[in-house]
Amino acid sequence: MTVKTLFIGMDGATFTVLDQLTSAADGAPVMPFLGSLFKRGTRSKLRSTPNPLTPPAWVSLMTGRSPGHHGVFDFIRAEERGEDVFFTLYDSRDCRVETIWSIASRQGKKVAALNFPFTAPPPKDLNGFMVPGFVPWRHLRRNTTPADLYDRLKAIPEFSAQELAWDFEQEKQAMESLSDHDRENWVRYHLPREKQWFRIAEFLMREEAPDLMAVMFDGVDKLQHQAWQYLDPALQSPEDGEYHRRMRSLCLDYFRQLDSFIEALVTAAGPEVQVFMASDHGFTATTEVVRINTYLGEKGWLAWKPVPDTEEGRRREDSMFAYLDWSKTVAYCRTPSSNGINIRVAREPGQPGIPLAEYETTRERLIRDLEDFRDPETGERIVTEIHKREDVFPGSAMGDAPDLQLVLRDFGFVSIKNKLPVVEKRPEPAGTHHPDGVFIACGPGIAEGKQIGRRRIMDVGATLLYSLGLPVPSDFEGQVPEAMFTAAHKEAQPVVIGAPTTGAKGGDGDAMADDEKAQIMAQLQLLGYME
């Protein structure tokens, strides 16, 4: 038995960076093997979810369904309780639809899925192997399946569960004091971590040869958040100082190593494998901080109480909504990562918020205020796109989505802090998510040297099932990009639309301890998703 389909996820990968790293214009390419895949295969931009964020995007890729159907919109679910907002971390049990791991498993295919977020706890019906991402290392054993896999992995030379998962202490230090030295160390520590995931993938391919081998490398996203200025080709200059050049060299070492991992996995899979690579979103530079709740306050949509001039008062201010005047608040943004506005609606007598009958007129008035949010010097709109939730999140889970989804002019995430000025230029460009990621394919039956039009992230799941020789479920929103394949391949293996999915197969698992949840919240703060 051999691997039939190899999928390599690269969180946040963008052609903006990859095209330069695969080019020989400035000497030897940093990623020569990936460059050879570009020449031997097909590529396209990959449009992410309406909010191009890791949770909704990866879950859409893994389910072939959009967030309005699978129900995962953010890292955390925010819920009003009295005069405060409480946050709960999403996990795999919040996904309302079936994943490709379960779909392939119930049709007899053996799968291996490594480091994908929101796969913990793993599905009960998995035929194969799963080591989830986005969990503290102390939870890895109990969320690794099958039960004996964790002990088998410990036999891999230099295996380290702590290194494999997030090093919260390392990242906490970076958050507290992001000096040049700390930033360099923070980037440096992702190199051995990615090697851990590579070794597990290599081990499972050699020992188990699953039909579908899938592994995700998330260091791409983490480096680009903290070190975008050293990677963006537009931000490089011959006059860059010694520290800048050293940081760029370190980042290039990361991508050089990643290229070697890709080459080793593709080579080990053999000449008959179809290889697919994709990212959940792209990356670009954000140049300003937009304090959306401050703007809503200026327009009268929310109000803040005075902060007591005491140490305790200032400490409470760190709790985002401690001083929000709920009696005067109609609309507000709950999390930076949501880039969304929630309108408070009283759906039953006695509940806070506007009457349901006033919802449409209220929302239209709010949209007009957001359209009027402009740069005072240029007149340019700060919020370039404002989407109603029924337009971008249709489906049974739409009720959990923000009422309005925003896109800022520089694609940044909003700030929800009550600070001035409303818009502030950043001291230096920072990395943020762009809606266009990457989709790459190579192997037998894949058209060579071809670029096709932009695809949607839900298409990846449909494509992986097609590559395995399985029908695409009729309720999938994702479609197989047939232009990616040769005519001979499509004739020999037509795309078949099959029975609908059978529903989510959530796993059983223990809840995280409070300190572990706090560590993940700290991680989200470091990456700019929380404040």
From TrEMBL:
| Molecular functions (GO terms) | hydrolase activity
Pfam families on file: Phosphodiest
- Which SUPFAM superfamilies does the annotation name? Alkaline phosphatase-like
This one is known as Type I phosphodiesterase/nucleotide pyrophosphatase family protein
